[in-house]
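Suppose you are handed a protein chain with no further information: no name, no annotation, nothing but its sequence. What can you learn? This example shows the usual starting point.
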Amino acid sequence: MSSNILFSFLGNEDITEKLAIKLNASVGQVLFRKFPDGESYVRILSDIKDKNVVLICTLHQPNDKFISLYFFSKTAKSLGVKTVCLVAPYLSYMRQDKIFHPGEGVTSKYFGELVSEFFDGIVTIDPHLHRVRSLSSVYSIPNMVLHAAQEISKWIELNVSDPVLIGPDEESKNWVSLVAKNANAPFIILNKTRYGDRKVKIELPDLEMYNDKTPVLVDDIISTARTMIEVVENLKDTKMKAAIVIGIHAIFAGNAYQKLIDSGVGSIVTCNTIPHPTNEINISDELGKGIQQLLQKLN
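A reasonable first move is to predict its three-dimensional structure. Written in structure tokens, the prediction is:
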């Protein structure tokens, strides 16, 4: 009988089931709910003594989840677990990794310190590490940083004829180039100027040599979708086919998803790090390998 037991936070049931099959692990029963006054309640119903407990909880909208994560971990430890780990396919609070304006705090560091206090390890997919070297500089617990590039490349090879990959800015170059290499496709990187959370300006190079190809826009996080919308609208002035948008993390804040559809995009595809109707790329294989490696480290 496996000494590993997985638990799903609300909304993470599908990927938890996939991981349980890959890891030959059971899925535990836990009750998450709120009292009428909004306080959080957690009750672990499964026997977890001396087991490796893994909680699957992707962290979009983290403020609504954080106290429940804390209660879960503390409760699990009080019940005599061997280890308790967090699998956060999408990891929040990674963008504010430096002080941009006087009076700000480095909230990625603060959040990392908090999580590190009550989990023994963490697994995630493509966190926003553009200005820090590694997740270990933010989290003091053992961690596994996994990547969706290989699965994205496979999807492109199977579903797109004559693709040219387009990265929206210089920050995307390293991993867009990797996706392109694995998919045996050319790539270009655009120049982006950001004027705020919802306003960007994109400069397209001469794309005439790619007129017979399908543009595949690839980014790690689609939040307001302003970057993708701007690129799609600029591509309308070329002779290229309708663009395909691929994102790892489908946040789609507010009505961003509808706005992206309305921009004239050909199709929208995301990884299943955040549950969304566009989830066509399954990254549970990578997560499963990462969980196994993390538990080996801890045991």
